[in-house]
Amino acid sequence: YAAKTSGETCRWYATELDQQAGEEARLGAELRTALDSGQFRLVYQPIVELPHGRIKAVETLVRWDHPERGFISPVDFIPVAERNGLIMELGAWILREACHQASRWYAELGDVAPEHISVNASARQLAHRGFAALVASALEDSGLSATRLTIEVTETAVFEGGPAVDTLHRLHDLGVRIALDDFGTGHSSLGLLQTVPVDVLKVDKSFVDTITMAGRHAVIATALIQVADGLGLTAVAEGVETAEQAAELERLGYRLAQGYYFGIPEAQPDFRRNRESAVDPAAI
Ligand code: C2E
Ligand code: MG
Ligand code: MG
Ligand code: MG
């Protein structure tokens, strides 16, 4: 009985795994087609100054509009692209496109345009020896100044050390800023802040979510702004969804925040509010 049962269990799992592998292969193949036929597009989410909401920077986020399946989240397809290697080509397209867009904003909007643009880079891109050169060429081709660009990486991607850390040094030498994304949720090590060049700490949404609850919930958000200030880093609070969270973050000393409360990711965020916030008509 035991043998038969475990045999059946094995077969059942094997089918399940086959299905998963099949889905992964299918999605992987569709990514190739999507890249060739222009199904990806970029959106930009504001990173704003507290409390007035002037747009200081934007984060570039990729979107996939699948012709049959509709919207597919980057949470679902970035890991597949990472595993099948297509992230190199997709990531290069994202980087070039974002640099060109930022460059156009400066040409069209001048100082109403955001100061910085962030682009996410995945572990495999960072580990590649040619990544810093790719960034340099995207900057050169678009005419964007290196000091305008921020590359967002996760702690986990640089945790292992090795080539990813070399890449960060090369990027930093170019003048590009480095942001640690989702800070506090990965292979967190405060020691990382001393060994890799970091300019920006993006405090993860999970620490913002609980900030207005009674009790000990603001402890981590409080500690992280102190770490950032103490090390001379810029802190950005991620995933701010309410006015209460924004007020509490400001009270704790956060100067920058990102989240649906301030702006969703859009193809063309409304930067005119930067001009308006300088001279508030309501105040006249
Ligand atoms: P991330 O880099 O931490 O990006 C922030 C994510 O949080 C985005 O989801 C954004 O839409 C979402 N978000 C922003 N504000 C709020 C909020 O107030 N509430 C909630 N619930 N969510 C908020 P998105 O665009 O789905 O991206 C998810 C993840 O996918 C990103 O996390 C990043 O890890 C990855 N990703 C997205 N675009 C790219 C890309 O161009 N390249 C790479 N390598 N990864 C990307
Ligand atoms: Mg990010
Ligand atoms: Mg993030
Ligand atoms: Mg996050």
Report what the structure shows:
- Helices cover 50% and strands 19% of the residues.
- It has helices spanning 2-36, 74-84, 87-109, 123-127, 131-142, 155-159, 163-174, 192-195, 205-209, 219-231, 243-252, 272-278; strands at 40-49, 55-66, 70-72, 116-120, 149-154, 177-183, 200-203, 234-237, 256-257.
- Strands 1-2-4-5-6-7-8-9 form an eight-stranded mixed barrel.
- Helix 1 packs across helix 2 and helix 5 runs parallel beside helix 7.
- One magnesium ion is lined by residues 182, 204-205, 238.
- This is Diguanylate cyclase.
- Keywords: Membrane, Transmembrane, Transmembrane helix.
- Residues 24-279 form the EAL domain.
The helix/strand order is HEEEHHEHHEHHEHEHHEHEH
Return Rg in Å.
21 Å
Q: State the end-to-end CA separation.
A: 84 Å
- Percent range for β-strand residues: 15-25%
Specify the number of helices: 12
Bound compounds, please?
ligand C2E, magnesium ion
Spatial order of the strands forming the largest sheet: 1-2-4-5-6-7-8-9
**Overall pLDDT confidence:** 91
SS content category: alpha/beta
> How many strand elements?
9
- Overall body shape: globular
Summarize the structure.
Keywords: Membrane, Transmembrane, Transmembrane helix. With 284 residues, the protein is of the alpha/beta class.
List keywords for this structure.
50% helix, single chain, 8-stranded mixed beta barrel, 12 helices, globular, binds ligand C2E, binds magnesium ion, 284 residues
